Amino acid sequence: MNDFAARMDWCVKPFNQANHAPVAVVNGALSRTVTSGQTVTLDASGSSDPDGNALSYNWWRYLEASGYKGALAISNGAGAVASFTAPNVVSPQTIHIILEVKDAGAPNLVAYQRVVVTVNPAGTSTPPQMTSPAAGTVLSPNQTVTATGTGTNLSWSIDRTGDGLGAFKTGTGPSITFTVPADATSTQTIVITLTGSGGTLSRSYAISGAPATVPSAPRNLGRR
Ligand SMILES: [Ca+2]
Predict the structure, then answer these.
(1) How far is the CA of 84 from the centre of ligand 1 (A)?
(2) pLDDT in tens, 145-191
(3) 129-206 has which fold?
(4) Are 143 and 187 in contact (CB under 8 A)?
(5) Is 40 in a helix, a strand, or coil?
(6) 94 Cα–ligand 1 center, Å
(7) How far is the CA of 50 from the centre of ligand 1 (A)?
(8) What superfamily in CATH does domain 2-120 come from?
């Protein structure tokens, strides 16, 4: 009703005597992703009013729209800058926060914004991804291969199956370079295992039949 009353005032009063709605501004993204335990800052200090009215603020959770229904304490919820601690969740959950900015005009007018916060469980990260070599790549004996991946705290383990040995190369970081064993055969595979904070990923690569480089031993030895 206040909107309607204000509109009636616009018809009969000059601009400087009618009240106009404030402008609600949220500093930062309206859609955010955080981790449990992280502090989420809600900052509406950039809000304004065309009439220069004093502003009052109210931050509240829109429970019906929120996936997370548990307890949530918004600190300084009646201030321009409020905050809350992202709650513990076991799977990603959304929290919808509504900002109400009310002016001190007559009649009072209110403007709104919505911030959608997605809370991810603590202790999980994005699963690692292997960007090269592409799945299905066939490797050759003696070939130098650089494997690359994305994720956090990456470590690598390169194994040739069928040789009864463990990994022939290990390393850490976003990439690793190794050489396919010269005596690798097509009955074996190269298994690249990438481990990161978010999980472990293994991929097998076939080995082509013929060695890329012929071993340097004289070939006529043993001939009869
Ligand atoms: Ca106003």
Answers:
(1) 29
(2) 999 999 888 999 999 998 888 899 999 999 999 999 999 999 999 99
(3) Immunoglobulin-like (2.60.40)
(4) no
(5) strand
(6) 32
(7) 6
(8) Immunoglobulins (2.60.40.10)
